[in-house]
Each structure stands twice: as C-alpha cells, then as structure tokens.
C-alpha cells in the first residue's frame, strides 16, 4: 500500500507531504504550507535529513531532537469522506458533513484528518463534547 507522511514544523508554518510507493521509495513531495526560507530548504534537502525513502522518514519521526521541532504523521494516501467520517466518530449529520468535506482543498483534507486527534485531546481536557463533524469542517477547527 502506498503511504503518505505529513511533516509540519512547530516553529514556522512550513508543511510538507511525502508519498512513498509499495517499495518505500519516494514518489512525490509537495510543500503545502508557508514557503521555506533558503536556510530551511538547505536543511530539508541535506543528505542526512531529506526522507528519500520511507525508512528514512520513519527514522526522522522517532529522532528525539527533531521531534521537538517537527511533527510527522502517517496519513492515508487518499482520504475519502468515509475515512474522515469513521475516524471522526460519526458525530453529526453525515450528508451535511459530506458537503462540507467535498469543498475542502486536498491539503485541507489532510490537515482536517490529522487534526481530529488534536480536537479530541482538547475536548477531553475541556471536558466537553466533540462538535458535529460539519461544525469541525466549517470552522476549520484543525487550524486553531
């Protein structure tokens, strides 16, 4: 199965998606967040950092120093509404949530999917309920 990883800097708005084939080789790289500075590009493209294969990005994911500054998450290569709906917990009106989901850009779909866990954690700390899926999508709560 093809795999995709989402890398986000905790210091800047830099965000990147890396896609790997069945053999773990990099097949696509896309920068989706704030543009990197020249120094940022030099760091990312350096031979000891650039995740040219899936084993490399997994090593970066568990690197103790990098984990302080960079968040790396594995996400499905293609996130469907059903994937989102099941992960979110089927809260809300499915048809309305689906219409909101279909209006999202591809990079927003990834961010929304990854943000579900953050929203759950926040709601547990607040001791409040998860919002309806359509509210989560409409208010882009993953950005907060």
Averaged pLDDT: 90
**SSE order in H/E notation?**
EEEHHHEHHHH
Spatial order of strands in the largest sheet: 3-2-1-4
Distance between the termini: 32 Å
β-sheet strand percentage: 15-25%
The coarse overall form would be: globular
Structural class, please? Answer: alpha+beta
Overall strand count: 4
Commentary on this structure:
- A four-stranded antiparallel β-sheet has the order 3-2-1-4, sandwiched between helices.
- The model has no long low-confidence stretch (mean pLDDT 90).
- The chain has helices spanning 38-44, 54-62, 66-69, 81-88, 94-102, 106-126, 133-138; strands at residues 3-9, 15-20, 26-31, 70-76.
- It is 44% helix and 18% strand.
- The protein is α+β, with helices and mostly antiparallel strands.
- The protein has two domains: 3-76, no CATH class; 81-143.
- The protein is built from seven helices and four strands; from the N terminus they run E-E-E-H-H-H-E-H-H-H-H.
- The protein starts with a strand and ends in a 6-residue tail after the last helix.
What key phrases describe this protein's structure?
single chain; 144 residues; alpha+beta; four-stranded antiparallel sheet; 18% strand
List the helices and strands and how they pair.
Blueprint: E1 3-9, E2 15-20, E3 26-31, H1 38-44, H2 54-62, H3 66-69, E4 70-76, H4 81-88, H5 94-102, H6 106-126, H7 133-138
